[in-house]
Design brief:
CATH architecture of the largest domain: 2-Layer Sandwich
CATH superfamily of the largest domain: Bira Bifunctional Protein, Domain 2
Strand order of the largest sheet: 6-10-11-16-15-14-13-12
Largest sheet: 8 strands, mixed
Number of helices: 13
Number of strands: 16
Number of domains: 2
CATH topology of the largest domain: BirA Bifunctional Protein, domain 2
Bound molecules: 4-amino-1,4-dioxobutan-2-aminium adenosine-5'-monophosphate, magnesium ion
Helix content: 25-40%
């Protein structure tokens, strides 16, 4: 007999038929006559209640069915009289697949803190919250491909190992096969990377954008969706050292087309979650954040506010609000400023454009006068910056000048510069932090709880 998942059983079309369910025991309760065993297999936020009459099973077996053990249950699926569940299985056969000693099993019925669950990340998938979070993570990954495929974008796989620093931020992880105890040095006692695996210094990528641009400048519209690495030593609830980024890049798009795409994309993803993850979102709305569904619907239904960085600074300065970090034209905005704009000043998602050139990357299109660039950041409630992007500088001379000013090595990026010599065109793109999106959609307040195995300073367990 083939196994049926909890998700399929709840759908109801196997009512009054014999079924086979396999899964892990969440709880067991009952009395001398009957045991009620809640089984979950991760396909749904709901459990299936298994009703086991004592006379059909040995006392030994029932005793060994403990929280955390795995079972296979054969029986008839019937409508459930109990509240909170629509179907249950009246068991005829139960086999214990793997026992679980309740004395040492770390997951107990009582709720655990997310901090504790991070220490047992190998088991936290078995909780309701993490089951919901990772089902939503899957659904949104799928939706991202759906969205771009429907729009005629091509999925481009950009390299994870790279010799260039796309963001110029310098916070990169080195990739090497050199013997760290015996490093080769040249005559000037400098490290000799010509002896390294790639014959040069290499790192894990901080962004697929530069290669993404090469794709867009031939295929028109591409997107990347892959792991991204930043060695910033920032221990915040919104940063991880390894995260997933979605980076669309479009030829013939200016900053306004770019903003329209970003807004449409975010609304599509939130709507997709509302439509396809309703049970999991209902659970999170009840247990994690009572305003979650309201906030998600609000995003779908409202137009984002579009302002310049300069206008935003004026609003912040005029607010009279006491910020931890001072607001001043030319300084980068901190999360507290971004959230003030979104949650207090405009009460809607905000797209800010035209940031000071000094605080943005070399590749952004320069505005008249060169003081500001055609950057765009999308700011979300509870999150702050969720997307960073820009129109790109397509003028060869302006780009080279900017690279010199910022000490970006031209010779290493010769291939990037050549696209501005051979049929250059207006183009734009942005990067969406996948985990930031997931924080927003699930209501989870720490980024470590929306990625299966978070990488943060001093932490690479599992
Ligand atoms: O603003 P960022 O640094 O932009 C880029 O990397 C551009 N190359 C994107 C592009 O134009 N193609 O990063 C983009 C987004 C941020 O808005 C944020 O959501 C996320 O990536 N992000 C992080 N998420 C988690 N942990 C970190 N350490 C992150 N750093 C950036
Ligand atoms: Mg940014």
């Amino acid at each position: 007999m083939t196994r049926t998942t909890v998700k399929e059983l709840i759908a109801g079309d196997r009512l009054n038929k014999e079924v086979l369910l396999k899964g892990w025991v969440r709880t067991k309760r009952g009395n001398r006559q009957v045991a009620f065993i809640a089984v979950n297999d991760g396909t749904s936020i709901h459990n299936i209640q298994v009703v086991a009459e004592a006379e059909k099973f040995s006392e030994e077996l029932v005793k060994n069915i403990t929280t955390g053990s795995s079972v296979a249950v054969r029986g008839i699926l019937v409508e459930s009289p109990g509240k909170g569940q629509n179907v249950e299985i009246h068991a005829d056969q139960i086999s214990l697949l793997g026992g679980c000693d309740p004395e040492v099993y770390p997951l107990q019925k009582k709720g655990h803190s997310f901090e504790f669950l991070r220490e047992i990340a190998h088991l936290r998938f078995r909780t309701n919250t993490f089951g919901a979070v990772f089902r939503i993570r899957h659904a949104l990954s799928f939706a991202i491909h759906q969205y771009f495929n429907d729009k005629g974008f091509y999925y481009l796989h950009t390299p994870i190992i790279t010799a260039s620093d796309a963001e110029g931020a310098g916070a990169m992880f080195r990739v090497t096969t050199l013997d760290l105890n015996n490093l080769p040095r040249d005559e000037a006692q400098q490290l000799d990377f010509s002896r390294d695996f790639f014959g040069r210094s290499t790192n894990l990528t901080v962004s697929g954008q530069l290669e993404g641009e090469l794709g867009a400048l031939a295929l028109s519209s591409i997107y990347t969706f892959g792991p991204t690495f930043r060695a910033e030593n920032s221990n915040t609830p919104r940063h991880v050292a390894e995260f997933w980024m979605i980076e669309p890049e479009m030829a013939f798009y200016d900053i306004y087309d770019n903003m329209d795409l970003a807004e449409d994309f975010l609304k599509y993803l939130v709507k997709y979650a509302l439509e396809h993850c309703a049970d999991d979102l209902d659970f999170l709305n009840r247990m994690i954040d009572k305003e979650l569904l309201e906030r998600l619907n609000f995003i779908v239904e409202n137009t984002f506010v579009r302002k310049s960085y300069t206008e935003a600074v004026d609003v912040l300065m005029a607010s009279g609000h006491k910020f931890e970090f001072p607001v001043q034209w030319g300084n980068d905005l901190q999360a507290e400023h971004e959230r003030y704009l979104v949650e207090v000043a405009f009460r809607r998602p905000v797209i800010l454009t035209d940031y000071p050139a000094e605080i943005k990357s070399f590749y952004m299109k320069q505005n008249e006068g060169g003081k500001t660039v055609r950057a765009m950041d999308v700011l979300f409630p509870k999150i702050g910056e969720i997307i960073g992007g820009s129109q790109r500088e397509e003028d060869y001379d302006k780009l080279v000048n900017r690279m010199r000013e910022m000490n970006i090595p031209e010779d290493e990026l010769w291939w990037y510069l050549e696209t501005r010599k051979f049929g250059t065109v207006e183009h734009s793109g942005f990067g969406l932090g996948f985990e930031r999106l997931l924080m927003f959609v699930t209501g989870m307040s720490n980024i470590r709880d929306v990625i299966p195995f978070p990488r943060t300073p001093k932490n690479a367990e599992f």
